[in-house]
Design brief:
This protein has helices at about 100-105, 130-140, 150-155, 270-275, 370; strands at about 1-15, 20-35, 40-50, 55-70, 75-80, 90-95, 110-115, 120-125, 140-145, 165-175, 180-190, 200-205, 215-220, 230-235, 235-240, 240-245, 250-260, 280-295, 300-315, 320-330, 330-340, 350-360, 360-365, 375-380, 385-390, 395-400, 410-415, 420-440, 440-460. By secondary structure, the protein is mainly beta. It has 2 domains: about 1-145; about 165-460, no CATH class. The longest helix is centred in the N-terminal third of the chain and has 11 residues, at about 130-140. The relative contact order is 0.11.
Length: about 450
């Protein structure tokens, strides 16, 4: 058994030669062997980020966490990170546990920052704020008894012969040299009227200097794919490591590398048990693709182009929806699915925005994304739509613009035969702003501007 959890500490660090301390924040995700409890005696692997204003702004951090609160009466942190100046630093600190003062000693971390030569660079004083961080930490805890899920496992078909089901595998990619956006969309549809399940889909190409192109494949009768493929529709196939196919005069042969840990845009339980009208997961949120895509007389050569591979399972498309995938670099991503369900009684509810923001290996919001959606508001429209509100302890603003001349309108058909229209752009613009409270006011912590590299869509019933 293993236990994963998230911990956030904030405080100050006084750097050598500076008269005043700087604000400091640690956001960590730990993976601990065994079950976490007061008698734990184990060492966890730690990843996350460290922020020291003007010195190490949201630098990736990794290291170990020794947890032995009873045996050794100590919780020790050994972490490494790189400053803005490119210097490698090492943080070493521990909480000295006193049984007569357990709360104070388990929430305060004194630490020393050293360089590669062992010289002291700074002294940090950090604190775990119970009133702000205890609930997110508790709700972030996950236990597992087997190996972690793999991308191949999360991409496997989930359909078990039931009528009225829709399953989707899609990949969106940006070729950075030419600015071309790519959309590969694969569907399994099991109609409600008892007709045989079928596979179909399309390829969309969004050149920077021309109108987007759409080409469809199928429909063909669904057949269970042979591993390692997770989708097979004659000339079109999907696996965790490869995308290949032909649709009209568009053909592609792409190999995948990297991808990061799976990103759960919806709650894990929603994906595992299928209790919501639909759920989405991104098994490979920060993948890189190499190969070629050909359309008409043009060829797009890809060499480590950023993209993702996602999987949807449900009863059909929403009444209306908006979606965003933004690759923020260095494995950081932002994923948004904002939707209103089509089911009777749910269609009149406000748009429910599911947001996952991964920064330095730490996912926000730290708790269940369905609970996090309660603090967010989405305004869906074309060509502009927004998501605003609270994302855990932070304040979030997302603005998306889908240019009319760079957007495809694609007809969707649900298992019950109803129709929807998806307005998709793989060359959208996005502004993402994350703010945190400091000094009694909201201050911008991170800001990203994506021009022609965001992947977005708006779905409507027309």
């Amino acid at each position: 058994m293993r236990t994963a959890f998230r911990e956030v500490m904030a405080g100050t660090v006084r750097l050598a030669g500076e008269p005043t301390p700087r604000p400091m924040r640690l956001e960590l995700r730990a993976d601990l062997p065994g079950l976490l409890h007061p008698w734990t005696d184990a060492t966890a692997e730690v990843t996350g980020s460290v922020s020291v204003a003007g010195w190490a702004d949201d630098s990736t951090v990794s290291g170990s966490l020794e947890v032995a609160p009873v045996r050794a009466r100590r919780i020790r942190y050994r972490l490494s990170f790189t400053t803005l100046a490119g210097r490698r630093m090492h943080l070493d600190g521990w909480k000295s546990i006193r049984l007569d003062r357990p709360v104070r000693t388990m929430t305060r971390l004194p630490a020393t920052v050293l360089d590669d030569k062992g010289r002291v660079v700074g002294e940090a004083r950090l604190r775990f704020h119970l009133h702000r961080e205890l609930l997110p930490m508790v709700t972030s805890m996950r236990t597992r008894t087997g190996p972690p899920p793999t991308a191949a496992g999360l991409l496997r078909p989930r359909w078990r012969g039931r009528r009225g089901r829709l399953e989707v595998w899609y990949s969106t990619i940006t070729e950075p040299r030419t600015g071309t956006g790519i959309w590969l969309h694969h569907e399994l549809v099991a109609p409600t009227d008892g007709r045989n399940a079928y596979a179909h889909g399309w390829a969309g190409v969004f050149p920077a200097d021309g109108a987007p192109v759409l080409a469809r494949f199928g429909p063909v009768s669904w057949r269970q794919p042979e591993p390692p493929d997770v989708y097979d529709a004659d000339e079109v196939a999907v696996s965790a490591d490869r995308l290949r196919g032909r649709a009209g005069d568009v053909s592609w042969e792409l190999r995948r590398s990297g991808g990061g840990e799976p990103l759960y845009t919806f709650p894990r339980w929603a994906w595992r048990y299928g209790v919501l009208p639909a759920a989405q997961i991104v098994p490979l949120p920060a993948a890189r693709f190499t190969g070629a895509l050909r359309y008409g007389e043009s060829t797009v050569e890809l060499d480590g182009a950023p993209g993702n591979v996602a999987h949807i399972d449900g009863h059909g498309n929403a009444a209306r929806w908006a979606w965003l995938h933004a690759d923020l670099g260095d494995g950081d991503v932002c994923e948004v699915v904002a939707a209103v369900a089509k089911r009777p009684g749910l269609a009149r509810l406000p748009v429910l925005p599911m947001v996952r923001l991964r920064l330095g290996g730490v996912d926000l919001p730290p708790a269940d994304p369905l609970l996090g959606a309660a603090g967010l508001r989405a305004e869906i429209g074309l060509p502009h739509w927004t998501v605003t509100g609270r994302l855990g302890p932070a304040r979030l603003r997302i603005e998306v613009n889908q240019p009319a001349d760079g957007t495809l309108a694609v007809d969707y058909t649900d298992p019950d035969g109803s129709r929807a229209v998806c307005h998709n752009s793989e060359r959208a613009d996005a502004l993402i702003i994350v703010q945190r409270r400091a000094g009694g006011e909201w201050r911008t912590w991170r800001r990203w501007t994506l021009l022609g590299t965001a992947h977005a869509e708006v779905g409507t019933r027309e």
